[in-house]
Amino acid sequence: MQCLPENLRDRVYYRPTNEGIEKRIRERMEDIRKLRSPAAEKNAPSHPKKES
């Protein structure tokens, strides 16, 4: 879900370092960015059906 105006869409406000906990934050942010990419959306499996 995109809530920002288009002109702010790709702006980066926080760049974690490779030190301490920020390294883990950076890795997690990279994972999220990959999941949000258009290619990931195309290749994502459809939601599984709920069992009754």
Q: Can you count the beta strands?
A: 0
How far apart, in Å, are the first and last alpha carbons?
30 Å
Shape: flat
Structural class: mainly alpha
Taking the sheet with the most strands, its summary is: none
Q: Identify the quaternary structure here.
A: single chain
Given the structure, what is the number of helices? 2
Please trace the helix and strand order, writing H or E for each element. Answer: HH
Helix amount, in percent? 40-55%
Descriptive report:
The chain is flat, with a radius of gyration of 15 Å. With 52 residues, the chain is mainly α.
Layout of SSEs?
Elements lengths: L19 H17 L1 H6 L9
Entry keywords:
about 50 residues; mainly alpha
Quick recap:
It is built from two helices and no strands. With 52 residues, the protein is mostly helical.
